[in-house]
Amino acid sequence: MRLSRSDFPAGFQFGAATSAYQIEGTRFGGTGTSHWDTFSATPGNVLNGENGATACDHYHRWEQDLDLIRDAGFDAYRFSTSWARILPEGRGTPNAEGLDFYDRLVDGMLARGLKPFLTLYHWDLPSDLAMRGGWTNPDIAGWFTDYARVVMGRIGDRVATTATINEPWCVSWLSHFLGAHAPGLRDIRAAAHAMHHVLLAHGDTVAALRADGYRNLGLVTNFEYCGPMSDTPADHAAAAREDAIYNRWFVEGVSSGKYPEEALAGLRQWMPKGWEQEMGRVSQSIDWLGVNYYTRRLYADAPGALWPSTTGGPGPLPKTSMDWEIYPEGLEFILTRLATKQAPGLPIYITENGMSWRDELRGNRVEDPVRIDFMERHLDVVKRRIAAGDDIRGFFYWSLLDNYEWAFGYDRRFGLVYVDMDSLERHPKASYHALATALATR
Ligand code: FCB
Question: Distance of CA 134 to CAs 88, 337, 425, 427, Å?
Fold first, then answer.
């Protein structure tokens, strides 16, 4: 790898990221049912009908996994707690085994010199709450705050940073409008409600945790560069509508208390009553923003089609096995706009960036030069933006392990470490070794 640690400021945090449902195995340790268990049990939702019941069995193999993180030379580990593992019914009595697990895990990180970066919600909503409307029910702000307090009461004294929600766009739009993730709705009113409630839950939780004395509270948002399919004004406007929904709604709601007009134009009539009076709750000040970035998508105007009246797809650039174009320039655009317009001065962590590939295990080796190149090109952007003055404090590769990639089941490999999905054995890929060497070079 071309880059080394000395290309980045002292104190810059390198880490790997995972999430609970994707690696732990929900059948272990008294976990309750989540909407991902039922979504994946419903025909047609997930490739090969796969689910997270066993996943990577991280629940039992966590020590080995933390060793892998330490041995790569990482400084930090971004993980999530499972709401359904901690509160099997979503509310009420915690599952002691679940809390004990995260307690051990956090101590395990500290023992290995790794800073724990906690995410409180990475998509495994307990079924009892999903049955009450989940993110479409305004009560979720209170449910989530209560859950957050249970988690922080147990491990909040030892985590370095806490993120409320992972990727509000996925929680709301992808899951309630596009129907691609649990609960699989395709309903514009449900989507508009979820888009607001997810930020209310975030804001109320930040306020509550701050009142409890916790610091380093943030939100993790995902960004995708939205470009026009052609140079016509109509296609530019189509891209701007998607950009407003994807890249502006959540971060600008939080940073300025305002949703973008290009998105409200289609969503205003479907918003929950009185939402305008609630923007103060949404825009609680946060200590940092997590940026997840993978790719770009190009949009064309679809005249006559229902709002947002666009068709989208990837462009002609080389693609990962997700069919996502490799486009580091999009990260540069996103970071520049955050620093100059959307959230000037707000510290940033790149909380996810990575790629899936058709990796193959040969002997004990996985050669993945394309992933090494991908990391270099995205880290180059980070380096350039730091030189330009942006306050970017860390970079987390998604993901440590090949894992359950949601609607794609176990078919998409994002890991630095190859996981044999039958034996569950771990094999560090060439990218893992390259990064370890880079991190050891000062
Ligand atoms: C992000 C998710 C993460 C993983 C990557 C590929 O949107 O946060 O869980 O699925 O994409």
Answer: 15, 32, 36, 38
